[in-house]
Amino acid sequence: MASTSKESRRKVVEGVFAINKPQWASSAGILRDLQTAFHASALFTPWLTSTKRSMQLSGARRRAIEHLKVKLGHGGTLDPMATGVLIVGVGKGTKCLQRFLECTKSYECVVLFGAATDSYDAVGKVVGRAAYAHVTRELVEEKLARFRGKIMQKPSVFSALKVDGKKMYEYAREGGEIPEVAARPVEVLELEMVEWLAPGTHEYKWPEEEVGGEERVGAEKLMGIREKDAAKGRGRKRSRSRSKSAEVEVEVEDHITGSEAHPKRPRTDTEPAMSGALPVENAAPREPSAEATPAEQNAEPANPESTPVETAEQLPDEPSKTEDQTQSNTTSTTPPPQPPAARLRMTVTSGFYVRSLCHDLGLACDSLGLMSSLIRTRQGDYELGKNVLEYSDLEAGPEVWEPQVEGYLKEFMEKEGWESEEVEDEESWLANRKERENGKREADRDRSFQGAGEKKGNGNWNKGKGNWKGRKGKTFYSKDMKGGRQD
User: Fold this and answer.
1) Domains observed in the chain
2) Which residue stretches belong to region Disordered (predicted)?
3) pLDDT, tens digit, for every residue of 300-311?
4) How much is the pTM?
C-alpha cells in the first residue's frame, strides 16, 4: 500500500451558507449560477473527486460520473420579485435545509394602497381599485396592531394557490361553488412601520395590466367586489401594455390536494376572499348592479366597523372633468394623485405570507393593498450585511467569493461537529483502489447475510424485496452469495 502524507491530501468542504438573491432572479436560477461557479473552482475539486470515486466503487454509470456537479439545494424559495437571504446547502448540507424552512424569518416590505392584484403583489394583474385618500400613517399604525401575535392566515387565493389542481378563480368562472380553503395558524413576533411614504414621495406604482374577460369575473367573486362596482369596472377600457408578470416566471408557492379536507360552500357576494387574518362577518350588503360606465372596481370592507369603499365617482385618482374641460380642445390631462405606501418590518414564523399581510392591511384600512417590494433580511442565523454572500461577489470571480464561501462552510461544519474528509492524491488512490473494492464487496456481503428463515411463497421472487423464496416456503441467504445452494 502506498503511503501518503497529510500534506498531500485535500479537504472536502460542504455545509450551508447564504447568498443575497438579486431581484428578478429565480431561486433555482441562483443555484444554477452557483453550480457553474463551483464546478470550475479549486475549492470544490476535493468534493467532486471524492464523490466521483465513491460512484466508481459503487458501479455508477460513466456518464453520470462525467457529468457530476456539486450537489446544491435551497432552504426556502424567494419569488423573483423579492431579494435577500437565500439559504444554500452544499453536499450533505442539503440534508440540513429542513430546519431553515421551519425557523423564523425577518422581512422588509412596501405595501402600496388603492389597488389589488391577482397575485397580491406588483407583478400581477389589477383586479380591483379603491379609495385611498383617507389612508394615513395614523390609520395604518392603528390597523397593524391586529396583525401582531398569533393569527390565522390564508395564502393568496389567486395564482399562488391551487385546490385539487385547479386555480381558485377557475371555480368561480365555471359558476360553481368556490372551495373553502382552511386558514393556517401563523405568528407575527414583530411588526412595525419603519417609513411612511406619502403621495408624491416615492416611485411605486400599480401594475398597468388588468385582469380581463372571464378571469375578471372569477376574481371579482373571490375578492368580494360588489356587483355594482364590478359592472363599472368591466366597462373600463383596459391597458394593452404588458406588465412584468408577462415576462417573469412567478414560482407557485402552494398546492393543496384533497378538497374533502376543505369543505366547499357557496361564497356570498358580500364575503371578501381575504387571507383570513381579519373578521369577515357583517360585511356590507350586496348592492344592485348599475349600468357600465368607465369606473374602477372596489373591494368590500373586511371588518364590522368599516364603511363601504367609495365608488369610482368618489375616488381621488379619477377627478371628473368640468364643462370647461369638456369643451376645451386641449389633449393634456392632469395625472391622478399618487397613492400612499408604507414600509413595514416584521419577524414571522414558518408559513407566513407577506403578500397576504399587504392585501389584508389594505382591506383593514377600508381600501385595497398590494406588495410592491420584498426583502428577506434574515433567515435563522443568516442576516444581510453580516454573514451573507453578495451576488456581486460571485460575479466578481473566485478570488473574491472563494474565501468567503470557504469560511462560511467551515464555520457550519464546526458547529455541526463534522470532520473534514481528506482526499488522497490520484496516485495513492489508484494504488489502494483494489483494496477498497474488495472491502466494499465484503461489506455488501455482510449486509446481505441475514440467516435462513421461514417465508411463505411458491419459489418466486418477493416482488423486488430481494428475498428469494425457495421451495417449501423457505428463504435462503448466504454470506458467500450462493443463494443457499449446496455444491
Assistant:
1) 10-103+383-423 (no CATH), 105-320+336-378 (3.30.2350), 426-475 (no CATH)
2) 207-343, 416-487
3) 434 434 333 333
4) 0.69
